[in-house]
Every structure is written in C-alpha cells, then in structure tokens.
Amino acid sequence: MPQDIELNTMKYLVGRIHITNYLYFTKKELDTKGTRHNKLVYITIRYKDCLIYKVFIDNGSALNVLPKHMLKEMFVDTSHIKPSTMMVRVYDGFSRQVIGTLEIKLYIGPQVFLVTL
User: Fold this and answer.
1) Where is average pLDDT lowest: 23-37, 47-61, 67-81?
2) Stated pTM of the model
3) What is the radius of gyration, based on Cα positions, of the chain?
4) Contact 82, 102 (CB under 8 A)
5) Is the dihedral of CA 80, 86, 91, 93 positive or negative?
6) N or C: which end of the chain has fewer CB within 10 A?
C-alpha cells in the first residue's frame, strides 16, 4: 500500500474489506498490469497498542496464521487460546497440529475486525 494514501481512500478500502471480506482496487489504483500481477499486498494493523507491519493479505486463505513469537510481542493473554485438534500441512509438506484458536479485535485504519487466528 502506498505510504501517502489519502485518509478517505483508506476508509473506502477498509470499508470494502469490512462489507465483503475481500479487498478491491479501482482501475485508477492498479498499476499498468492491472490484476494480472503476482505482487503481494501488505498492510499495517493495530492490536491494542501494538502496531504490526507487513501483514500479508490473502483473501483465498483458508486459515489465518499468527506466528507464536508475535503472541509475545502483542502481549496476548494466552489463557484465551481455545484448544484445537486441527492439523495443517505447512510449506515443507509436513502436517502439524495448531496450538489453538484465538479471537481478537484488529484495527485496520478506522475499522475494527473480529478475527479468529
């Protein structure tokens, strides 16, 4: 995302995510390749007083992943983690059990999102 994005444009984008759970761009906002590119989209989010930079947006993802070290940096109360029996296949092809699930409020621009991790 451009660092000089106008507040109204940011509100519009976040509002579109909130309404549809998808991120859309207008033709004006896309580069010359339009949607035919393979660039990653990162945003900055806030959890309580902790800013988290370069959060990867993947609308097609079936699972939201929060690395364990981020729990410590975010000062998340781990007593709120609910046990899970879910297994996931990770990048190296092996299956691993998730630690659990956690529901938190994330702030993206002016919007608040309840996210299950």
Assistant:
1) 23-37
2) 0.57
3) 16
4) yes
5) positive
6) N
